[in-house]
Design brief:
By secondary structure, the chain is of the alpha/beta class. The chain has a domain at 41-147: Rhodanese-like domain (Oxidized Rhodanese, domain 1), CATH 3.40.250.10. The chain is 22% helix and 13% strand. The chain contains 4 helices and 7 strands, in the order βββαβαββαβα. The protein has helices at residues 54-62, 73-79, 117-127, 141-147; strands at residues 24-25, 31-32, 51-52, 66-69, 86-87, 106-109, 135-138. A 5-stranded parallel beta sheet has the order 3-7-6-4-5. Helix 2 (73-79) links the parallel strand 4 (66-69) and strand 5 (86-87). It starts with 23 loop residues before the first strand and ends in an 11-residue tail after the last helix.
Length: 158
């Protein structure tokens, strides 16, 4: 039996589509996700930097680990954030090196698997010398978090 492998490519968005970069919880409790925006990001950002799923992230949060939401403020306002997260947009993350400690892991996330904010944040952090082993990437981001029925909180003003 011969198996032909064709290059898998993403379908095009419907004509006139307006992207929604954050999940929306409908009145009936179902979650509406927009698959058409962004570019699918790699599962591994660096060989020494783990990619986590929800259970690893929950363990990290419950044990007092640091968590950073790298999304733009408008997206955070639209969806809320994961409980315990510090909101630091990816563009400014390298200005906050005091939040990173080589002795403890800081987890980072963004809108989801097609969002480039966390990969860009990690790139900036590695460029200024943050050890990859002190970071973790929650690739599922707010999209998977909300789709799995996990809680979000509004952003508190500081």
């Amino acid at each position: 039996m011969e198996v032909l492998v064709n290059r898998i490519s993403r379908a095009n968005a419907p004509s006139g589509h307006q992207p929604e970069r954050v999940p929306v919880i409908e009145d009936d409790g179902l979650v509406r996700l927009d698959p058409w925006w962004g570019s699918i990001q790699p599962g591994q950002l660096h060989s020494d930097l783990p990619t986590w799923g929800e259970l690893e992230l929950i363990d990290h949060i419950e044990s007092g680990g640091r968590l950073i939401d790298t999304r733009q403020p408008a997206y955070v306002e639209a969806s809320g954030t994961i409980p315990g997260a510090i909101v630091l947009p990816w563009e400014t993350i390298a200005e906050h090196l005091d939040l990173f400690d080589a002795r403890r892991v800081t987890a980072l996330f963004c809108n989801g698997p097609q969002c480039a904010a966390t990969p860009r944040a990690v790139e900036r952090l590695l460029a200024v010398g943050v050890a990859p082993a002190s970071l973790a990437y929650y690739r599922g981001g707010i999209q998977d978090w909300v789709a799995l029925g996990l809680p979000t909180v509004p952003v508190s003003s500081k």
